[in-house]
Amino acid sequence: MHFQWYPGHMSKAKRQMQEDIKLIDVVIELVDARIPYSSKNPDIDSLAKNKSRIILLNKADMADPVVTEQWKKYYEGKGYYCLNVNSKVVPGVRPVQELIKKACKDKMERDKKRGILNRPVRAMIVGIPNVGKSTFINTFAGKACVKTGNKPGVTKGKQWIRLNKDVELMDTPGILWPKFEDQAVGLRIAFIGSINDDILQPYQLSLALIRFLTKHYKGALTNRYQVEEIDDAEELIKRIAVKRACLLKGGEPDVDKVSVFLMDDFRNGRLGKISLERPNIQEAQDQEAQDQEAQAQETQDQETQGQETQDLEAAEMELT
């Protein structure tokens, strides 16, 4: 499968964000705690440079808690303020207020020295589609400020929300980036529902998820569907269909129907607390990519040097 989804409104939202960032003190990026690397938009780093940064590992209640703590330390080590949250419950978002104050402490002290008092901190909420930005804002504000929905594209434009006398939030539409260089990233984003399901192949997606679960979370499918886990994903999904009486005429397993509810079970946490990526793996991938880039640059330098030598020799021959 090839994953790519970048509708026109995302390009427009990115351009608007470039303008609005000038008004902002701190950028709060929500990522899905199940895929904290893949759900972090690399474009935000360039848009939000020189701004205080907070990363909220949202939906932490559905992720592997041990892995989520590893990701929290990973991002803190990168210089971000970081917090694990469950945006659906008030206690889960209360610490965010204190984290905003901590991230903006230097800015607030500068304002105080300049005689600027009681100006609220202006925070921009960003993230890819379906990571829970709208739910987070409504829970944080204690009221329904924005529309919510379990599909990408609910928020269409920016809006300001005054939380209290200390904080104002700017909500923005969820945006992806134009091209996934790594299709594994696209696959993980598809798993959590950040790409419109209408353009995907649910059966192929569910097979990939089954293969991951049987390798890394043995027992998850057995506990949910009461089937014996086997290495053959195609056979396993048929067994799940039979167990759930999802059958076509003639008794054939309805694998398309099973694929839809299997993905829904994962996205809603019914398969257990699952994380799809780990920071130590990503660190190794990052280092490998850096090594490959360095090797490519060295090869290019050698080729350039060789060409320069040939050019010099040719020039010398012409002179003689």
Give structural notes:
With 320 residues, this protein is of the alpha/beta class. It folds into two domains: 13-171, 3-Layer(aba) Sandwich (Rossmann fold); 201-267, Conserved Hypothetical Protein Ylqf, Chain: A, domain 2 (Orthogonal Bundle), CATH 1.10.1580.10. It is 50% helix and 10% strand. The chain contains twelve helices and six strands. The chain has helices at residues 8-20, 42-47, 65-77, 90-103, 105-113, 133-141, 183-191, 202-216, 220-225, 233-243, 255-267, 279-319, and strands spanning 26-32, 52-58, 81-84, 121-126, 159-162, 167-171. It has a six-stranded mixed β-sheet, with helices on both faces. Strand 2 (52-58), helix 3 (65-77) and strand 3 (81-84) form a beta-alpha-beta unit. Helix 8 (202-216) packs across helix 10, helix 8 crosses helix 11 (255-267) and helix 10 (233-243) crosses helix 11.
Under CATH, the topology of the largest domain is which? Rossmann fold
Q: Report mean pLDDT, rounded to a whole number.
A: 82
Name the shape in a single word.
globular
Ends distance: 60 Å
Count of discrete alpha- or pi-helical segments spanning 4 or more residues: 12
- As residue ranges, the low-confidence spans are 147-156
What is the number of beta strands? Answer: 6
> Under the CATH scheme, which class of the largest domain?
Alpha Beta
- Which superfamily, in CATH terms, is the homologous superfamily of the largest domain? P-loop containing nucleotide triphosphate hydrolases
Within the largest sheet, what's the order of strands?
A: 3-2-1-4-6-5
Order of helices and strands: HEHEHEHHEHEEHHHHHH
Instruction: Tell me the fraction of residues in β-strands, as a range.
Output: 5-15%
* Class computed from helices, strands and strand pairing: alpha/beta
Largest sheet: 6 strands, mixed
- Which architecture of the largest domain per CATH? 3-Layer(aba) Sandwich
State Rg: 24 Å
Count the domains.
2
Helix fraction bin: 40-55%
